[in-house]
Specification:
This protein is mainly alpha-helical. Among the domains are: 1-112 and 169-260, no CATH class; 263-304, no CATH class. Helix content is 68%, strand content 5%. It has helices at 7-11, 39-55, 87-92, 96-111, 114-141, 145-184, 190-200, 204-207, 220-233, 243-260, 263-269, 277-289, 293-306, 311-322, 327-340, 345-377, 382-394, 398-412, 415-428, 434-453, 456-459, and strands spanning 2-4, 16-17, 34-37, 64-69, 75-78, 82-86. The chain has a six-stranded mixed sheet. Helix 2 (39-55) crosses helix 4 (96-111) and helix 13 packs antiparallel against helix 14.
């Protein structure tokens, strides 16, 4: 598991829409937290979500799911077809059906095109507000400062009131769509109701103190009652979670608890008397985090002995060994993980990192194809590009190493550095090759990004007409 604030998080800053939680004004900003990358948890969330997306007529390959390291109970859609799920939601859920219910709701937002429509609604709400501000300025100029100030301050509330009327309809629509997708996939909608009822409804008294024109979501009690009749009338209302979904859910929670919470908290949740596989998994992570390698390996080795074909047990052992300066020993575990779960970018990157660290020039020969495979599927993965730059450098391929560094910085949003590395790469790359053209593209695209970030006065040299 790796935590990082990716370029995507920065690019989506301020664009978060359709939050599930009882947000009074707006969804949580993705840039304020870290995005966690974990192949196992991402796979679980996709297995939960993909049938819902298909039921909604969407292509699962077009939808990305991101894990946000935040304890609040929240999920939201941002930037088109990106679903963000907070760790707090996954840890507070009591069963897979509750998580799947939330994902069904978010699928409803994507299928309804609510992101684009919400921006349109915001623009429409701003029109009357600007008129009110203009009238306020005129009132002040006419000698009525109190009336003018009231018009200006009231314009914000007026705009917000117009906006939330629209967003509340969207939330209710996403609830109903989510219930439809759950039924279409043979799953119960009761998890969505229980999640709203148990996790969000207790805080409703707080939101009822907020002026109604500031609430972007309906009251949770209203949402529960609006859903209840439809869910209870559905033919799959009594459907239970599959054994595979339950197993994935237990391991997902165990892994998150081991990584996010303290060792004491983890052992309280999973005491030594608990010999279940998820408990040993959580303790293996908790021991590893406090550098207790012996006990961490003991717990994990027992799991590997029981399930030698589980790629994520192999991956975790490799991670533990690598981070304890045993890169050569880690290679066998990460190699096995890649064999068991091929085409997983995060697993390929981990193996490539081991090879670079342990075998230097000889390892780079094997690492490069792995990293090329990873960036082909995740072109914005800055860590993969960094490792590719290391591999190229180990092979003495200076221009290609600089090109990879340009890609890394472009993915991170450091456009000045991206241009610098790309320009250096172009000096020695053969012309009329794909690598040279890519370096030129980075110079162009990064330059456009920098110009877009500049105030208009700077772009025009400060001249006035």
């Amino acid at each position: 598991m790796a935590a990082s604030l990716t370029a995507l998080g920065r690019r989506l800053a301020g664009a978060a829409v359709a939050a599930l939680a009882l947000a009074a004004l707006s969804a949580n900003n993705a840039s304020a937290q870290s995005l966690i990358r974990d192949a196992e948890i991402e796979e679980t969330l996709h297995i939960y979500t993909d049938p819902l997306l298909q039921a909604a007529g969407l292509d699962p390959n077009d939808v990305d799911i991101y894990l946000v390291d935040d304890p609040s109970i929240n999920a939201f859609v941002a930037g088109g077809q990106n679903i963000f799920v907070h760790t707090g939601l996954l840890l507070q859920a009591r069963n897979p059906n509750e998580v799947i219910g939330v994902l069904a709701h978010e699928t409803g937002h994507i299928a309804g095109g609510h992101g684009v429509r919400r921006r349109e609604a915001m623009n429409q709400a701003l029109g009357p507000a600007l008129i009110s501000i203009g009238l306020g300025v005129l009132a002040i100029a006419a000698g009525a400062p109190d009336a003018g100030a009231a018009l200006i301050s009231g314009s914000q509330a007026f705009a917000m009131a117009n906006f939330v009327r629209y967003t509340q309809v969207q939330e209710s629509s996403a609830d109903q769509a989510g219930a439809e997708y759950l039924e279409a996939t043979g799953q119960s909608g009761r998890g969505l109701i229980s999640f709203f009822n148990d996790k969000l409804r207790p805080y409703e008294f707080m939101t009822r103190r907020v002026p109604p024109y500031m609430l972007t979501h309906p009251y949770s009690s209203d949402r529960v009652e609006a859903l209840r009749q439809r869910v209870e009338a559905a033919s799959h209302r009594d459907a239970v979670d599959s054994e595979d979904n339950l197993r994935r859910f237990r391991f997902m929670q165990a892994k998150l608890i081991g990584f996010i919470q303290s060792q004491g908290q983890t052992l309280n949740r999973y005491p030594l008397s608990d010999h279940s596989a998820p408990a040993r998994y959580a303790r293996a992570v908790a021991y590893y985090r406090v550098s207790d390698l012996t006990r961490s390996r003991q717990e994990l080795e027992s799991l590997i002995a029981e399930e030698p074909n589980n790629p994520y047990f192999q991956e975790l052992m490799g991670q533990i060994l690598f981070e304890n300066a045993r890169a050569e020993e880690a290679i066998a575990y990460h190699r096995r993980a890649v064999e068991l779960a091929p085409n997983q970018p995060l697993l390929e990157i981990a193996l490539a990192r081991d090879l670079n660290a342990a075998r230097q020039r000889r390892g780079a020969d094997e690492a490069i194809p792995l990293l090329q495979s990873a960036v082909a599927r995740e072109p914005d993965n800055a860590f993969a590009w960094r490792e590719l730059a290391v591999s190229r450098d180990l092979r003495g391929e200076e221009a290609l190493a600089e090109l990879a560094s340009a890609e890394q910085n472009f993915a991170m949003g450091d456009f000045n550095a991206a241009i610098s590395f790309a320009e250096r790469a172009r000096r020695t790359l053969p012309r009329n090759t794909p690598s040279y053209q890519r370096a030129s593209d980075i110079v162009t695209f990064a330059g456009n990004e920098l110009r877009d970030q500049q105030p208009r006065s700077q772009q025009t040299g400060g001249r006035r007409g």
